[in-house]
Structures are given as C-alpha cells and as structure tokens.
C-alpha cells in the first residue's frame, strides 16, 4: 500500500504564496497520474489540479493561473505552488492518484486570512 505524506501548509495572508509537497512511498508512483485535492469545512473533497505520469498538468477553473503542479518522479514527490491565494482557498489539501485506490494521507491545512 502506498503511503502519502503531505506538507507545506500554513497560515498566509490573501495574495500570499505557499508550496505544498506530497511524498509517496514505494516504486509505483511514477506510473500514475496524481492529483491535489482539497476539502473545505462543510464541503466535499474536490480535485483542484492533476498531472499525468509524463508531467502534463491540468487545473480546475478556480485555481487556473494561480496554482502550478509539478512532479519529481525520482523523488516520488508532487508539488503544488500556490500563488495569489484567496480566502476561498482555505481547506485541507491532500494528494492522491487520479481515480483513487490509495489511502488518503493526513493532508496539510492551508488557511488564507488577514
């Protein structure tokens, strides 16, 4: 079973930036498309960014132009660079393979507030 560990969250003012990291255990990471998901209080978990095994990203409209997703297969890591953060970006952020199948990690809290 692949273990996922997210980090890099925190409290930031509107307009600020954060860089999230997700490290996956095991040797199969590189063969899967990966995604960053977020869950705000009282809301369902949503996919905000995805990246293919070859490194092609795609974004939800709500974050397009502000978030950048990348991966380093040698390090079993995906990154989410978040710029121009807004209060509505406040959520717990998780990574997982696209389509599910791996256990969710603990996530990392992102709070955007003045």
Describe the structure.
This protein is mainly β and 114 residues long. The chain contains no helices and ten strands. A six-stranded mixed sheet has the order 2-10-9-4-5-6, with no helix packed on it. A four-stranded antiparallel sheet has the order 1-3-8-7, with no helix packed on it. It is globular. The termini are far apart. The relative contact order is 0.33.
Helix content: under 10%
**Lateral arrangement of strands in the main beta sheet:** 2-10-9-4-5-6
Distance from N terminus to C terminus (CA atoms, Å) equals 40 Å
**SSE string, helices as H and strands as E:** EEEEEEEEEE
Which class of secondary structure composition applies to the elements?
mainly beta
The outline comes out as: globular
The count of helical stretches stands at: 0
Question: How many runs of DSSP E, i.e. beta strands?
Answer: 10
Beta-strand proportion: over 45%
Main sheet? 6 strands, mixed
> Could you tell me the mean pLDDT?
95
C-alpha Rg, in Å?
Answer: 13 Å
Low-confidence stretches: none
Structural descriptors:
single chain, 114 residues, mainly beta, 6-stranded mixed beta sheet, 4-stranded antiparallel beta sheet
List the helices and strands and how they pair.
Layout: E1 4-7, E2 10-12, E3 18-24, E4 34-39, E5 46-51, E6 57-59, E7 67-72, E8 77-82, E9 91-97, E10 108-112
In a nutshell, what does this entry contain?
The chain is mainly β and 114 residues long.
